[in-house]
Amino acid sequence: MESQKDHVPDLDAARARDAIEHVLHKTEAQDAIMTGLALDELANAGQLPEPLQTRVSEDQGTYGIDEQLVMSILGIYGTISWTNFGFLDRTKPGIIGQLNDSQKEGGRVNTFIDDLAAAIVAAAEARIAHD
């Protein structure tokens, strides 16, 4: 939530954690997270039908369902969450980048979880901005 420090100078870990927990308690967020994690796990196990298996496993550039899935989280918190997500998806800071890079280096399939992590942070940032 470093990007919010300019807008909320007194932002501390407790407030950030509270905002993240608020996002995680939303049913829409839980459903998106469970769905994305299940698809990543199935892809890791090679259990998706083709051509879906290849598209998810390779996180192909034209496969945008991972971004579409997180829109259900972002929609709860308004347009600011969408712009926050775009920034996080492009810059991939912290764990978001680690998840993305791990897959590119031949590790686990993280096609959905990196975008889900970015969406959770983006939505939490939007919640803080609205307060």
CATH topology: YutG-like
Mind telling me the CATH class? Mainly Alpha
CATH architecture term: Orthogonal Bundle
Cα separation of the termini: 15 Å
Tally of DSSP helical segments? 7
Gyration radius over CA: 15 Å
Low-pLDDT segments, ≥5 res: none
Total domain units: 1
* Mean pLDDT over the full residue set: 93
Biggest sheet architecture: none
Strand content: under 5%
In CATH terms, the superfamily is PgpA-like
Range of helix content: 55-70%
* SS-based class: mainly alpha
Q: Given the C-alpha coordinates, what overall shape results?
A: elongated
Number of strands: 0
The run of helices and strands is HHHHHHH
Give an overview of the whole structure.
The protein has helices spanning about 15-25, 25-45, 50-55, 65-75, 80-90, 95-105, 115-130. It has one domain: PgpA-like (YutG-like, Orthogonal Bundle). With about 130 residues, the chain is an all-alpha fold. It is elongated. The protein contains seven helices and no strands. Helix 1 (about 15-25) packs across helix 7, helix 4 crosses helix 5 and helix 5 crosses helix 7. The chain is about 70% helix and about 0% strand. The mean pLDDT is about 95. This is Phosphatidylglycerophosphatase. One of its GO terms (biological process) is lipid metabolic process. Pfam families: PgpA. GO terms for molecular function: phosphatidylglycerophosphatase activity. It comes from Weissella halotolerans DSM 20190.
